[in-house]
Specification:
Helix content is about 35%, strand content about 20%. It has helices at about 10-15, 45-50, 120-130, 175-180, 185-195, 220-240, 285-305, 360-375, 400-410, 410-415, 420-435, 440-450, and strands spanning about 25-30, 35-40, 50-55, 80-85, 90, 100-105, 135-150, 200-205, 210-215, 245, 265-270, 330, 335-340, 350.
Length: about 450
């Protein structure tokens, strides 16, 4: 018998358990890193409870499992109230039994949204647009590497073995034969996505060895962030079925390009349904240029969210297809801000700076925040870059510490994202950065041990 609460779930989730016994429900909250935190419980118990509880300290945990100091001073770990968002219900088709996942809304005990929860941060930024009568639309692109199993962190990452018996090769961008080398993993990704009700707009081979890109159809920012959050898990599970890993590190393999999460942006007038980036005659509207100007002005203060780890900045190096600039250009992939070819109704701006290692909720929120500030400030961008923007001077922070300094000094960015969130995020990331600086790397041992 289908539980009553499932009537509020997407059709794909209902179809997945139709005629079957639902065993378990995973109650999930994305943390600062985008890791799924929460509880798994028998489906029968989930059906009897309307809310659940977790301590607010889950948002103070670093990627290494350590705890950052609470900027508010107190570390009493009060419980937050978790309420299921049934519209996010989706299958976990890799499990041995029939399991569903449900993302939960997070509020305090007075019913107010917890401002440091990443999903709430994105909802807040979207709400700023909606208060102006605008509906932001995004289309994310996900790049990742399939790599050989790596159980020893001291060993370098290497490409996976393909069906030919040879390791995946680099410099095979857009090659269908390269994708076929690990076709069984791709097949499982498709099957899992179909079971979960996700629409894949396309899969292609990128420039790195074993590097894949998945494009998603445009839509609501929160829904798309939910999908990327779920996609990361399903892709990892598909890879594990075939004796390899999927990694979303920004730069997992030395000498290979990094993995980005390009974000396409457009804004719809909620009253007329028109893309505000185009005027009534289909020409570029002033708002289009204002949005770009906001990106150019405020992205340096947002990089700490788009490139959240020390490894993220290894992607920002010349000659590896990662723009290290704030130039904009029409159909110019060397610019950090690209305007793709489109008709007036689909006019959009592509932010090419975000890494795939970012929390999708925070990456999209930060990118939208820059555009929102541009729309409200109504400034014009620099002239369009016509040539090769790769040769432009560096405009972005090149270390996590510098990026956090820029974020801390930006009152507009902190105001849009929320002061409490900005303080917690900075505390977590400075803790991670401090931990990294205490690690001695193989490069240091090789070149400094006997030579200095």
């Amino acid at each position: 018998m289908t539980p009553d609460w499932l009537q509020n779930a997407p059709q794909a989730a209902q179809d997945y358990v139709a005629g079957r016994r639902l065993d378990e429900v995973e109650c999930i909250v994305p943390d600062i890193a985008g890791v799924a935190r929460g509880k798994a419980m028998p489906a029968s118990k989930f059906a009897r409870q309307e809310k659940f509880y977790l301590p607010n300290s889950i948002f103070l945990q670093t990627i290494t499992g350590e705890w950052a100091d609470n900027p508010s001073g107190a570390f009493t770990e009060p419980d937050m109230v978790l309420t299921p968002d049934y519209t996010t219900t989706t299958a976990a088709p890799w499990t041995a039994d029939y399991t569903l996942q449900v993302i939960h809304d997070v509020s305090d005990q007075q019913g107010r949204p917890v401002p440091i929860a990443p999903r709430n941060v994105l909802k807040h930024v979207v709400g700023l647009f909606e208060a102006k009568g605008w509906q932001p639309v995004v289309a994310p692109e996900m790049e990742f590497f399939l790599v050989a199993r790596n159980t020893d962190p001291n060993q370098p990452i290497i490409p996976p073995m393909g069906r030919s018996g040879r390791r995946a090769a680099a410099k095979q961008a857009y090659s269908l034969s390269a994708v076929d080398e690990y076709g069984k993993v791709i097949d499982d990704i498709y099957d899992f996505a179909e079971a979960q009700g996700f629409e894949i707009d396309g899969i292609l081979q990128e420039g790195g060895a074993g590097q894949v890109e998945i494009n998603l159809a445009h839509g609501d920012p929160v829904r798309l962030a939910d999908e990327i959050f779920f996609f990361k898990r399903l892709i990892r599970e598909a890879a594990l079925r075939h004796d390899c890993f999927a990694t979303f590190m920004a730069k997992p393999i030395e000498g290979e390009p990094g993995s980005a999460m390009h974000i396409h942006h457009s804004i719809v007038d909620m009253e007329t349904g028109r893309n505000i980036f185009s005027d009534e005659k289909g020409r570029e509207a002033p708002e289009f240029l204002h949005f770009i100007a906001g990106m150019q002005t405020h992205l340096p203060a947002a990089i700490a969210l788009l490139a959240p780890y020390v490894n993220s900045y290894r992607r920002y190096v010349p000659d590896f297809a990662a723009p290290i600039n704030l130039e904009w250009g029409r159909d110019n992939r060397t610019t950090g801000l690209r305007v793709p070819i489109s008709g007036p109704e689909a006019r959009r701006v592509e932010n090419r700076l975000a890494g795939m290692d970012c929390n999708p909720y925070l990456g999209i929120a930060a990118s939208l925040a820059c555009g929102y500030l541009g729309l409200t400030e109504a400034q014009d961008p620099r002239p369009e870059c016509i040539g090769d923007a790769y040769i432009s001077e560096d405009e972005l922070p090149l270390t996590l510490g510098d990026a956090l300094d820029l974020m801390a000094d930006s009152e507009p960015m902190r105001a849009v994202l929320g002061e409490e969130f900005a303080a917690v995020y900075e505390a977590v990331k400075r803790n991670e950065y401090k931990e990294f600086l205490q690690v001695i790397s193989p490069w240091e041992r090789e070149h400094l041990l006997l030579n200095v």
